Structure formats: C-alpha cells, structure tokens
Prior knowledge:
It is a single chain. The chain has 2 domains: about 5-190, 2-enoyl-CoA Hydratase, Chain A, domain 1 (Alpha-Beta Complex), CATH 3.90.226; about 195-230. By secondary structure, the chain is an alpha/beta fold. Helix 1 (about 25-40) packs parallel to helix 3. The chain has helices spanning about 25-40, 65-70, 75-90, 105-110, 140-145, 150-155, 165-170, 180-190, 195-210, 215-230, and strands spanning about 5-10, 10-15, 50-55, 55-60, 95-100, 100-105, 115-120, 125, 160, 175. The chain has a 6-stranded mixed sheet, with helices on both faces. The chain has 10 helices and 10 strands. Helices cover about 50% and strands about 20% of the residues.
Amino acid sequence: MSTVRVDRTDRIAWVTLDRPPRNLLDAEMTASLHRTLVELDDADDVGAIVLTGEGEFFCGGADGPGLRATGTAKEFADAAVDLFGQCARSGTPILAAVNGDALAGGFGLVCSADIVVAVDGARLGTIEATLGTWPVIAQVAAARRVPPKAAITNALTGQPFDAPRALELGIIDEVVPADRLRGRIEEYAQLAMASGAAGAVGRPLLHRSTTQPLDQALREGADAFVTMFG
C-alpha cells in the first residue's frame, strides 16, 4: 500500500502521510513524497499543495530503527535532500495542515511549507538530541524558519515547542481546534492561489533570495519583473 495519499478538491491537492501511528519517514516513503510534490507542481490543475498526516500525528520524523535494520540510511538521506530541495524549488504554494505532533524530519517539512496551521496540543520541533543524535537534515529547513536562539536551544535540548510558542516565534501562522483545521487551511490555500502564474515565478525566487548575495537576488528579481510587465 502507498504511504503517500493524494486527494484533490478545488485545485487543492491534499498530500497525506499515511504510515500510522507516527507517519515515520523511511527511504521509500520519502522518495515517494518527493515524486508526488514534483508531479503536483507540474500539474496544470493544481494550484496549491497541502501536507498533512493520517491519524493523530503529522510526522514523527525518520524511522531511525527501520533505516538501520534495512541499511537504507544513504537512500533515505538522498531522498530527503531531493524532498526538501523540491519544497524550495516548487512554483506551487505548499501549506501544512499540522494535525498533530511534527517532530524531527516532520518539523523540517513544517519549516519548508509556506503557510502552516496547527491544531491545539501539537508539538513542533527537533527531538534528535534526546535520542543521542542530531537533526543534521531537518535543521537546514529549521534554520530558515526558526529564530536563531530558539533554533539552537531546540537542537541542543531536543525539547519541541508547543503550538502557542511556535506561533509566537513565527514558525506557524495559526493555532486552531482540530475541527477547524481543514476549513482554515482551505481558506489560506485559496488566498495563496490568487497570484497564479506570477506566484509560480516569484515563490522560488523568494526562497533563493534568502541565501543569495543582494545584487544577485535583485538582478533575478528585476529580470522576472521585466518578463512579467515587458
């Protein structure tokens, strides 16, 4: 059975991580999620992508014991690089409907999304330090979303943020009761689709601009401006 499920409504593609109870990422699931995001980004009838989880977890991160047992750590790491890279390259807006805990790599997915709504009671953050490891992949996305002081404290202690604290830090956009999650994220998705083709150009430009030299970012923006209005 596929561990990544896709449902489409009103140009919104709902991508559900379906490996309960914690929706842990193995190499196959991570590669499947990457392929799914690429296919949806290329689809003319998809205007927004929503990531969510099956059951009471959004995503608990990588299936460490499973990766060790199967010897697939390299395959998982390569797929994770592709996945998080696609999140930044996508011309289609990516939203996260955080239906429960988003931990470790799952937190990386949250930090890779453009708009995030989480349910009351959700925990968000890396936890690898409590397991004697380090969030070496998830921290790349987290460092672009979490304020530096909070990011290093979370990485060192492995203590995730509760939803109100994540909201206060600007990691997520809203905290809602579980029965409001789908409706609220659909409202955001409709708003996110308003820019249309311009957003498909501008979104990846915005992501690239955070790591580019100023002059390079301005030049790419100016070239895009000329294309749009010239």
